[in-house]
Hints:
Elements: H1 7-23, H2 29-36, H3 42-54, E1 58-59, E2 68-69, H4 71-80, H5 89-97, H6 106-121, E3 125-128, E4 137-144, E5 149-156, E6 161-167, H7 174-188, H8 193-206, H9 212-228, E7 233-236, H10 245-248, H11 251-262, H12 264-275, E8 281-284, E9 296-305, E10 308-318, H13 323-343
Antiparallel strand pairs: 1-2, 3-7, 3-10, 4-5, 5-6, 8-9, 9-10
Amino acid sequence: MLERLPEKNHRVLCSVVRDYIQTAHPVGSVRVTKKYRLGMSPAAVRNILADLEEMGFLEQPYTSSGRVPTDRAFRYYVDMALEARPLKRSDREMIQEAYQFVAPDVGEILQETSRILSQVSRYPSVVSAPRVSHHIFERIDLVRLDGSRILMILISQGGVVHNRILGSETQWSQKELSRAAEYLSNLMKGMTLSEVKKKILEELRLEKDQYERILYRIFNGGRKFLEEDAADVYIDGQSHILQYPEFSEDIEKLKGLWEAFEEKHLLLHLLDKAMEVEGTRVYIGAENEVGSMEACSLVATPYCRDGTPLGTIGVIGPKRMDYSRVIPIVQYTARVVGNKLQEIGA
């Protein structure tokens, strides 16, 4: 956590950051003095700018130009000076209305979340789907395939279906599989898969009947779901990034960001990281831990069911992102999508 700067330095630095967010141009002492009425002479501001550069908050791209904020400056601004603007009524209504005609399906809701978040924020959006271990399951079906293979179908309350083919040394009849599936469905209904795992272990310690081997085989299949437990990532609005000269005029930065969009596992790592802490996280530049996103910022917040985080939504943009506008949009959308998923029992 950065310490607060002396008042004059604080005001000058925040003025430079705000101006750069608006214009994307280097900021000089004369402009800061005239535009922000800091009560200081251009010479005094110039000295403070030099001090801030020495402290790593500013850098000067060209000798004759003004200065631009570094990652350190944006971090200071977000932590020490940011005042989130109230969400506009029109934005709230647009977000709410987006879900009116969406099917009660987890995938459809998250896809629409990605679309509306990008549309309202005017930045690319990313949404991670709930992990399998967070799904509340409705029932399990077991279908006998050829030979000794069994098709296991897990269905969650939100309509998400997971399939896995299990091998077995024993050729079970369809009647036996159906009876085992009914037993397990009654056992697991309303539980998450992680809770089901614990429950079946308890049952296996107690049950010594003909279904033990079937249950053990199915439990192992469920455990593999947990081990793989990869979430989908929904992305929308990638073209919005071309509005910003940092990317439209720098092909290397643009290529790097597009690589991140293609490598979804990198985005998923960041979104999972944001879900580990309560509230909204802002990752600036190198904080993203993804080389291709060092020119970007990510604003992300978890969406929850009954207070339990299920996944993360966020927007990606240049480091001079309009944080005071974006953060309330992301937070409000997270609340809405969490409520929608809770309504369908996801």
